[in-house]
Specification:
Helices cover 38% and strands 23% of the residues. With 286 residues, the protein is α+β, with helices and mostly antiparallel strands. The mean pLDDT is 91.
Length: 286
């Protein structure tokens, strides 16, 4: 499926026009949809009754999350409730989240509450992207959830990453064995996870104004992988990327050093005992 660059451009232009530096969760979902990154069913409610209706339609349990451009770290703001099991709980949860968000940031623009299908099972991993001043766009992968902050078991590749890069990233973390299944657990769907990594890397390469992107957690199971939460930060005045030689240029230049046609030894000597003589002999004798 071709990526929908037009839709992503529309969303980013709207964010820029409003003077924002981040996308809301629903906007992040639309961006993911445009680039083939699986996300759960969800909707945005502006009232407790709307939230209950949405939750009933998609089935319980659900997750409730505050929607506000000014609140990126929703958990810290008391803006997340998981495992909500009934319409009554959803209505109460809506009111609680809105009250918590107002207390956390009285000036925040509260757009509503995101009602999201709750995922369960599988291994929690993180897929993300950052902008490095030296290397440019990098795609990241590691164990997700709270483990990403505790273990810091993350690996990086230059974006855009290939399928082979994405698969090697799964083998490149210290906890790689967990992904392959331990103590009777099922191995994850490596190809599905690789597609997410690859698509995230393509997205940030196609749109340099995306400064940071986090999919955390991504629930990886034996049957696929789905991003439960999306965070996207933008910078519409990015530093121009540094020159990056192509792979072929790098190989050609390295071969000139590692596979030379000839070697000139400056200071060689035919007189025994001289340093130049010893160096020359060592080169000849290997």
């Amino acid at each position: 499926m071709a990526n929908n660059k037009t839709e992503v451009r529309r969303i980013l232009d709207k964010v820029k026009a409003e003077g924002r530096t981040s996308l809301t969760a629903p906007e992040g979902k639309l961006v993911c949809d445009a680039y083939g990154i699986p996300v759960p069913k969800e909707g945005v409610a502006t009232s407790a009754a709307d939230a209950a209706k949405l939750a009933t339609g998609m089935g319980f349990p659900v997750v409730l999350k505050i929607v506000s451009p000014e609140i990126l770290h929703k958990t810290e703001a008391g803006g997340v409730l998981v495992g909500v099991k009934s319409a009554d709980e959803v209505q109460k949860g809506f009111d609680t989240i809105m009250a918590n968000a107002k207390k956390y940031n009285a000036k925040a623009n509260l757009l509503g509450v995101q009602v999201q299908q709750m995922l369960s099972g599988g291994q929690e991993v993180i897929v993300g992207a950052v902008t490095d001043p030296s290397f440019g766009k990098l795609v990241a992968f590691g164990l997700g959830g709270v483990l990403v902050e505790v273990l810091k078991d993350i690996t990086f590749r230059l974006a855009p990453a290939t399928r082979e890069d994405a698969l090697s990233m799964q083998d490149g973390i210290a906890a790689a064995a967990i992904l392959k299944g331990v103590r009777g657990a099922d191995p994850i769907d490596r190809e599905a996870l690789a597609r997410i990594i690859e698509n995230v890397s393509l997205l940030v390469s196609d749109f340099p104004e995306i400064a940071e992107m986090d999919l955390n957690p991504v629930f990886a199971t034996k049957n696929g992988a789905t991003a439960a939460d999306v965070r996207i930060v933008v910078d519409f005045n990015p530093v121009p990327p540094r020159y990056r030689p192509s792979h072929d240029d790098i190989v050609r230049d390295m071969n000139r050093i590692m596979k030379p046609d000839a070697v000139a030894v400056i200071g060689a000597s035919s007189e025994d005992g001289k340093i130049g003589n010893s160096v020359m002999k060592n080169l000849i004798n290997g």
